[in-house]
Amino acid sequence: MKTLVPDRQQSLVQWVSQATGINTFGVKVRLRGNDLHILCEGTECPQRWRTLSDLLQALQQTNLDILTSSEQTSIYQVFVYGRRKGEQRPSWCHRVHLNQIDKHLDQVQQALLADSEKSKQSGGALIVSNESLARQGNPEAIARYLSETLSTLGVSVQVKIKLYKPKNSQPEENRLWIFCHSSYSPDASLLAEPIAQKLRYLKLSGYQDAVIVSQVSGETAPDWLLRVDLTPPEVMLKEWARWGDVQAIARLLAEVLSGLKVGVQVSLKESTLHIFCIPAFDPLGTAPIPDKVVCLEAILPQLEAIAPQGILAATIYGQKAGDKEPTWVDWLALPAANHPAFAISPLDLANTGDEQAIVFLIERLLNPDLDWRLLTGGTRVLLLNKNGLLHIMCDAPVCPQRQQVASKITQFIRQLKISGIIGVRIYGRRAGNKEPFWHYGVDLEHRQRLVPEATPEFAATSIYINDLVTSETSEPILRPDLTTEEVQNFVTEVARDWIATASSTARKFLLKSQLFTESNDSAERNHDLQGIKIALVWGTLGLLLTLQTDWVLGRIIALNTPSSPKVASATLPSSSSEQKASLTSGKNQTEKKTFFSSTSKKKSPPNQSSVFNASEFTQSEDTPKNNLAAAPLKEKATATAILLAARSQMPSFNVRQLDEQLALYKQRLARTGSPPDVLIIGSSRALRGVDPAALSKALATQGYPNLDVFNFGINGATAQVVDFVIRHVLEPSELPKIIIWADGARAFNGGREDITFKSLAASVGYKQAFQKTATTASSNDLPENTVNSGEEKTNEEKQEISTYEAVNQSLNQALASVSTSYQNRDQIKSLLQKQLLLFGNNQTVASQKQLTDGTSDESISQQAVDFDGFLPLSIRFNPTRYYQKHSRVPGNYDNDYKSFQVEGKQDTAFQEVLQFTQSQKISLVFVNMPLTADYLDPVRKQYEQQFQQYMLRLATNPNFIYRDLSQQWPKVNDFFSDPSHLNRFGAYEVSKKLANDPMIPWPVK
Questions:
Q1: Count of CB atoms situated within 10 Å of the CB of 90
Q2: pLDDT (tens digit per residue) in 299-311
Q3: What is the pTM of this model?
């Protein structure tokens, strides 16, 4: 089978064939990084020196970059192989440096001459290594030097020098930029330390640092950036030696004494440095003892120049390695003895708050291996003291691990006991990045005023990285490796499989209906007439049964519906009144809103001291008497939400509470003109568990006044529902800069059936959310929309309705006009649910039905949210009374924890939310809400532990914070309305705790 050779490789093959005289079938080429590999083969192995001579002469006259693609970086080396056809390994291999072709030619000519004279004498020009050329600072030589390592990984290298001006008004400096191109995305940890070691090994002068840029071929934006500190090892050693580091001092003295063939051993006792001078090499014990005068003349100037901090004197000994007593001893006074500023030890300086001393001690703590620090640059520490908090940034070529760094630094800072420092915040990042990869915080003492601190901007070197790659075009990048034939074949195969599957499914369905039979059945067994009769009989029976059931359900509803007072009937208007209200003037709308709000105000608040409870029954003796702190009850907004949702031009999402919460949120946006400062989202645990009014008030006391907070909680919301609301229902301009996601483990269970999202996905609003254009997105349904705009939108939507949907809608309307129970279908559903709950001790009923926030025994007013979207419940959880009405469902029978697993569709949705919030620069805080001890049985505890481990793994993501309150008040039942939901008293406490959390970056107006 013939293999198609791309044009780029074909031109290289032809060029090699013409240069060497070898047939094109005997030439193979491959580009790997900056290296070109050429394989020459024939029936007899090509002669090495003759082939090289021809090829080198051609290389002298040809620019290889012309023969390669414009996207391919320059070629630095050519590897030439020769072998006989059929053999697996080449007989010879030769490496050619393209910047030294003349020297290679001299070498080849000498070899050819030696072969012709049959001489064994070898000669030729000396080939200079890329390392020697790179040490001179030439960019092309540095690129060739690095490509020797990176080309084996399929990474090509290009090096440039750019000038940059530091912020502190210093003169411009050179910066080394290294561009790594590859066809894949290499892990930064794979390349970071090898590149850093090779660059630092060169000991380049004139460069403070280098920036490595990794970019995938065909992409316009860099994949990742890395900064390499090019500070020479000698400078690093002198910096640490200046602070009195014994290992650094020993290294410097060893370099000075190595020319004298003297070895050195250094130790520190109290404030005196002990230096032992011994022979550098004495295997037989015959080497003379180092001369005292020579050693002192070499050591004294070094110690005076270093002036080590906290070291007052030095004692120098001369002896052999095995001797117990020194041959000579001398004492020296160091600069610290005469200058009090040098006499204080680094640890004492750190205790006084000296930032440079603290940085040195932390860097020494994080870099125990001095050799590794000199090779790679090690872990660098940046420090900032702000408002009593010590912010410490740790960066390295590979981001330091939080488990290894945070505990060490925290323990060290605790030991220092620095005056005025009440907390420490530790961050980790890869060198070259501006934002931290992770953060960790600890308060050292109780803070009277907890003002959460955002991550400060350290002196990051990546401020110059924005000008790295300019995006020349924003056009989409297509896959060049796919041909038209491959795409057509793929589409044909998919269509063929789909047609076969659809045909098989339709055939089975028609056969099961018994209206059709197999075509190969005998003609004598034609039962068409009998089949029609059977269909008519069963159809008539089904229609009669449907009508009878509808009449019975209508009678049951009529008997079970009590006569309602006029106020209650006005609170829930009929569909006809809603349609009429949508066409009235603004005056009538205002009157109706006022009427709705006034009817809700007539009911006394549940916490008011009265002989009647919230259900208008006299209070029992076990009703709690103690008063708990809570935010004042606000005006109910359920009636307004129903009206707004009914008048909305946006199709329903089949989730009533989502429709109403969205209507309230849109009204808030229309009134304020901007999104709220904080958005609370989640399931019913968020809806009842975080009070916006209490949170706003508590934040005001912490230095964040006038923050607008809205609760977008939705009963039964899972991670999929939250993902849909944030990314598809709300526009990015309608989102705040911080989202509080309050929920728990069961919202992330990918093993159970997601009933809420399933209902949502079947709605017309769900389809429109994925099909809306920029025009429709700008016309969100607000209460102020006029009748004309509503009619225009309706006409546009009617044009998009398919024939099937039109027929379905007309049939539904016809049945609704005839049926006696269709208008009361919600009441029928509630009645059936109540009967199922009261029927026996059926423990397979989902806990979502049994642990809802309100039952039929509670008043409708307790199910009403306020205008902040919050549902305040005053009922307090009493296990004795609660389990008289509800079955106790253990965790192994709880459908919310059925087949519990955090991986799956819920995890996928959560990852989408993380990526979206990071791209929009939105801080996401997930709060694991409190639970009662009654609810946390051993099974649920095990699942909660799995969920917490899952969350802790994801807590390393930027802009994401995880706070665990699940076991905050397991025994305080007065804070709960049922085993797994808070009441308004618990919501008040949670809101205060969140406001006082120092790790949450609250926005500042």
A1: 16
A2: 999 998 999 999 9
A3: 0.43
